[in-house]
Xaa-Pro dipeptidyl-peptidase
Amino acid sequence: VKPINVYQMFRALPKSLEKHLFFHNGAHVYMNAWQSIDFRESMNALICQKLLDLDNGYTLPTVIWQNNQSEQTWEVLDNFGHDNGKHIQLGKAEASIANHYEEEIFAKYGKAYQSFKDDLFMDKANAITLDFELDQDIQINGRVHLELRVKSSTNRGLISAQVLEMGDKKYLAPIPELKRMNVDNGRLFKEEALRELPFKQAKYRVITKGHLNLQNRKDLLSIENVTPNEWMTIGLDLQPTIYKLNKGDKLRLVLYTTDFEHTIRDNSDYEVTVDLSQSKMTLPY
């Protein structure tokens, strides 16, 4: 399950229907296993209210999200996905992404994809790396959208994107740690470990990412030709997220063909060129 699956279901439900969503950062954790939010007691209060007609004064907000800027902090929102958008022009020139790596590097990345990610995020892999400093506070809520003017040197092409917050400071780490060895009545009524994301010093934090096959640039069921060296305008929506940023925070957009973690990729020799002057990124808030 990816964020997009929950996002689409939540937004597809009619407005007349009362709906609720919990949004957390990092790897998958069952909601009842978080130390910092008492999910089980929230559900007990809601069920008693609905099934037993108990007037306990409990109100479940529409969206409860885990604040990325502090440790063990949950806050309330009225929706998942907003229509307002901050537009950021990507640049003034053309830039190219090479798909091909030298065999030694390709083999290294294939055996240890984390080494590829480390190089990619630090501008050491085949990628277009663009840095921006925010001129206002913004809370991303929804799908970051990229409008890209691109061309491929061959009759096919892949393009991927990741957005990161850069800067040496504390972030919520992506992998949860055990905070207590067990709690009664976990999943399937078994004892279950409590977990929490550590708030650690790091150089960056991934906010969202996405991927597109240029032959499926309209949708996954439509196959369109890619004419070598012919410009096309594509739209790429990244995975939906909720992420809070402050004025002066630094964003990094990384554009590359494809990765070594999720994709069975070849090492063919082609390039994807992006006209940055005709491309932009939109942050929903």
User: Anything to note?
Assistant: The chain has four helices and 17 strands.
